[in-house]
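Researcher: Here's the sequence for the chain we discussed earlier.
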Amino acid sequence: MMRQKKNLLFAVALTGLVWCSGVSAQKKGDFTLSGYGFVDVRSYMDTRKSVAGADDYLYLYPLNEAMINGTDVNDTKAASMLGSTVRFGFNMTGPKVLGADSRANVEFDVFNYNSNAFFLFRHCYTAFDWENSSVTLGHTWHPMGKLMPGVGSIAVGSPFNSLNRSGQLRYDYKAGDVTFEAAGIFQSLNNSTGPLGRSYAYQRRSMIPELYVGLEWNGEYLSLAAGAEWQKISPADSIAGTDVKNRNQYVESVAGMAQAVYKNGKFQAMAKTYYGQNMSQLGICTGYGLKAGTDDEWSPLTASSSWVFVDYGSDFKVGCFAGYMKNLGADDNLDASKICAAGSDGHGTGIDRMYRIAPNIKYKAGNTQFCIEDDITGVSYGEVEAKGTVKGGDFVVNNRILLAVTYLFSL
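Model: Thanks. This is the structure I predict for it:
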C-alpha cells in the first residue's frame, strides 16, 4: 500500500514535469502563468548520529550519548552520496476580484535521497491585493518564519530558526514604510508535539487557530520587524475509543519574535530572536509538561532562540550562520516523565542549550550555484529539574560538511 501511494505521488509529479516542459510565461486574457524552480544535488558527511529528516538531509542537531557496554553507539560517522531534488513553482495572476488584483502560487518538491523517494507540497495559496492591503488564503510560510538565513542546509537554520509552512488566513495593511500583519493559522505539515508525538490534532481539537499580529518597517538599507502569537491546544492522551483522559484540558501559550536585516551593496547582515512558550510547531525546542501531582493540568515550557547571519559578495559569496538556544523551563513543577518537548525522552533527560556555527562559501556561474558549508552543532543534554529546566552537562557535537550544486531555471 505504501509503495502504491509513493508510485501515485511520483505519477502526479512526473505528469506535472511533462506539462511544465511546455509552459513558458503563458498569457490568456487576464490570466498569466509563469514557472520557476531548480534541480539540486547534494551530499554530506557527519561525525555523529543526529536528529534529521528527509532521509537525514534536513539536519537538526546531534543525538545524546547512548551507552551500550561502555560504548556510545551514537558516536558514529556517516556520509551520503548523493541526494537530488527537483522543485517546481508556478505563479498565476488573474482578473480583478472585488476590486483587487488576484494571484496564486503553487510549489512542490520531488526528491530522491539514497533509496527513498518523497513528494512534498510546499505552497498552495491565493491572494488578493488592493492598493494598500492584501488578503492571503492557503498554505505558505508561517509569519514567524518568513526571514531565512542564506545557509546551505535545506533546514534554513532550524531548530534555531522557525521552519513552518501552514494553512492560514492573513491580512496585511501597508501605510508608507510600515506594514501591519494579522493572521489566523491552522497547523498542517508542521505540528505541535504531544503525548502521541507530533500531530495537528492537538490544535484542531481546541477549535481555535494560532493568532498572530506583527509590524514591519522597511527603510533604504535597514528593515525591522516584530510579532507575537497566541495559541491554545488540547494534548489529550487519546483521540479514539473510550479513553478520553485530558480531552477538555488545554495548554495556552504566547511567543514573540524580533528581527533586523541590513543590506548595502554586496554586504548583508540579518538577526532574529524568539522568546516564548511551546514553539514546537515552529521547530524550536520547546513544548509543555504535565504539572506534578495532577493528571489533567499542563504547563508550557519557555525557551529563547537567536541567530545571526552575515555574508558578502555577489557571484562569489562568503557567509556565516551562528545560533544559540536555551531551555528556560516552566512556571510550575512538572512530572519529568510527562514532558512533551524535543530532546525529552521520558526518562528524565532533556536539552538544556545548543549552539551552531556554520560558515559557507557559494559560487554562482550562470544558472548554477555551488555551495560548501561546514556546520558545527553542539547540544548540552542533562537531567530534568523540577520546573523543566535541565542541569546540562558537556556538549555533544556533530560536524557536518555539506556539498551542494543547484541549477536554477524559469519557465
